[in-house]
Amino acid sequence: MPRTTTVECPVYPPFRALTFDALGLIKVIEARGGVPKVVDRWGEPDASKCVLAASIDDRKTDPLLAVARKNGVIEVLNPLNGELLVTVSDFGNSSARPEDDAIVGLHLFRRQRLELTSRLCTLLTCTTKGNASVKTVDISDSPEDSGASKTWNVCASGNIACSQVDGSENYALFGGKGVEVNMWDLDKCTNIWSAKPPPPNSLGIFTPTWFTSATFLSKDDHRKVVAGTNSHEVRLYDVSAQRRPVISFDFRETPIKAVTEDLDGHTIYIGNGSGDLASVDIHTGIKLILYACSAILLHFAFLILGRSSFFWKSLS
Amino acid sequence: MGGKRKNSESEGMEGDNDGKNSNKKMKKEKTEILPSSIKNKEKRSAVHAKLKHQKKLDKRKKLKARAAAEKRALELGEEPPPKQIPRTIENTREADATVCMPDDEELFAGNDADEFSSILKHDRTPKILITTCRFNSTRGPAFISELLSVIPNAHYYKRGTYDLKKIVEYANNKEFTSIIVVHTNRREPDGLLIIGLPDGPTAHFKLSSLVLRKDIKNHGNPTSHKPELVLNNFTTRLGHRIGRLIQSLFPQDPNFQGRRVVTFHNQRDFIFFRHHRYIFETKESKQSDSKGKKAKDAKDESIAKEKVVAHLQECGPRFTLKLVNLQHGTFDTKGGEYEWVHKPEMDTSRRRFFL
């Protein structure tokens, strides 16, 4: 008799997730108490339209989804039905071609309630060479870009690999290869804080800086930052305390590809390059749960949707 | 002694019970004499042997009955009862959501965009660099020389003390399309690393059961014609990707007149490599007379007399590969992202395969 074990299908809380892949497709996955299923697919498979970054402004009325693609185009869509609202090309007016200076981070700012009627949305993008820009785009009848934009350079040398905007949308975080984590004030476009690498250890060995992902620990507090490095280290920084990391711990042996915070403000989820997912309590540094993933996977992209925080992997 | 008495007592009791329960179903009798409930090893093994013998007799009886039924049906000219399909592990493989479907446009789009498409679309001709680990001895060099004869346009370079990442750089400069690194452990090749270039994936295989050409009985000597490639049973997405990786090592225009075939057969996640020379022969089948009478009228007599068979002569090495991990990008174990890593916790089911 074959020895098979059946695992009870766990009951998922109802959720709706959007996933983005390297062929430029956006798929909608929904689970209403049962097994999650792909319910919708937007776009045609086209490798030049590979999705590099995405951000959502999830309001009850008129939500918006911004998607940055490999060919340098940023699209603003309606996340409920995938309808394309605006296409913004030549973002930041940079002369570099999209292949050299790919977009690494994208953030769609929340619109205030007063602006319900006005069809404006603001986007913050950051490229690998460190060109960050904030642009206001009009989603009116003509799906073309217009509006003022502010551009500044975030790093003198090195490549940016991760960027994040905090809950109050006043501060933005950037980090990357050879670029220490630094925090910028978005209104004044000034650098208010930058991290310092931990001191070399007793043997004098010093690992070069390479941050692969970073996030703010809680929505209301912009002072605590968690960052993951290429050398499988997760570090907690406190902006108000010191420039060196407050807590730092190792997680397995491959680069930390994604870090995201839980809504409770002290749990984080980390994902690494060999497919391990863990949730860690940042106060104690104890790994709470370790998830085993064995499917084909590459990049990890974390999205926060609505009331429940959720994570997904995007296949490249 | 006490044990013997106890068992004889229990047997006696069972005998009584048997007598009482003879009217009841046979099932109950079977559950009473479960061997695992008997503590005495001799008695237990005797009961077990008896059960096994009984099972064997039942099986043989069933087999004879089946053969007799088939023979009877053939004699009467009726349809023989349908042949039963044996249950195998491949038959009962767990359903995998990542199996490639023939109508999957995303798969085709992905194929167009992946690292091998330029070679598979005949834009680039494969040029392979073969090297070894730093210490290579005994069977390693023999295996390398055989690999050079199997894969056309392959070049061997001695390893020296170069870093693998540097070797990747040098190979990119010289426009190679793949690197194969044969890893040796204890004087026996046991690992194969295939790196696609310029920024292709890195597949790390475990190599086992290596049989060199000289150890194969009646082996043939391969020619230098471009071989045909046979890739069997690479069903899932991961398997498809590995299949394309292997395909990118060989030239895309096989020379069928050379009658040389290289086979990568995937079964249960083990990839079996075979290298044959084949020849087609038409055979006059001698049993055509007896079968010709029973054959339907529609069948042409000439076809019933001649059959085309393929004869294979094995040449070249014989080995098996098992995928250990597949890494995106060129060789970078610590900093790279893994598309697939084998973890022991994946091996929970005997019917679950990944390729």
Automatic annotation (TrEMBL), chain A:
<keyword id="KW-0472">Membrane</keyword>
<feature type="transmembrane region" description="Helical">
    <location>
        <begin position="288"/>
        <end position="306"/>
    </location>
</feature>
<dbReference type="InterPro" id="IPR015943">
    <property type="entry name" value="WD40/YVTN_repeat-like_dom_sf"/>
</dbReference>
<dbReference type="GO" id="GO:0005730">
    <property type="term" value="C:nucleolus"/>
</dbReference>
<dbReference type="InterPro" id="IPR037379">
    <property type="entry name" value="WDR74/Nsa1"/>
</dbReference>
<dbReference type="GO" id="GO:0042273">
    <property type="term" value="P:ribosomal large subunit biogenesis"/>
</dbReference>
<keyword id="KW-0812">Transmembrane</keyword>
<keyword id="KW-1133">Transmembrane helix</keyword>
<protein>
    <submittedName>
        <fullName>WD repeat-containing protein 74-like isoform X1</fullName>
    </submittedName>
</protein>
<dbReference type="GO" id="GO:0030687">
    <property type="term" value="C:preribosome, large subunit precursor"/>
</dbReference>
UniProtKB/TrEMBL annotation, chain B:
<dbReference type="Pfam" id="PF04427">
    <property type="entry name" value="Brix"/>
</dbReference>
<dbReference type="GO" id="GO:0005730">
    <property type="term" value="C:nucleolus"/>
</dbReference>
<dbReference type="GO" id="GO:0000460">
    <property type="term" value="P:maturation of 5.8S rRNA"/>
</dbReference>
<feature type="region of interest" description="Disordered">
    <location>
        <begin position="1"/>
        <end position="72"/>
    </location>
</feature>
<feature type="compositionally biased region" description="Basic residues">
    <location>
        <begin position="46"/>
        <end position="65"/>
    </location>
</feature>
<dbReference type="GO" id="GO:0030687">
    <property type="term" value="C:preribosome, large subunit precursor"/>
</dbReference>
<dbReference type="GO" id="GO:0000470">
    <property type="term" value="P:maturation of LSU-rRNA"/>
</dbReference>
<dbReference type="InterPro" id="IPR007109">
    <property type="entry name" value="Brix"/>
</dbReference>
<protein>
    <submittedName>
        <fullName>Ribosome production factor 1</fullName>
    </submittedName>
</protein>
<dbReference type="GO" id="GO:0042134">
    <property type="term" value="F:rRNA primary transcript binding"/>
</dbReference>
<dbReference type="InterPro" id="IPR044281">
    <property type="entry name" value="IMP4/RPF1"/>
</dbReference>
<feature type="domain" description="Brix">
    <location>
        <begin position="126"/>
        <end position="332"/>
    </location>
</feature>
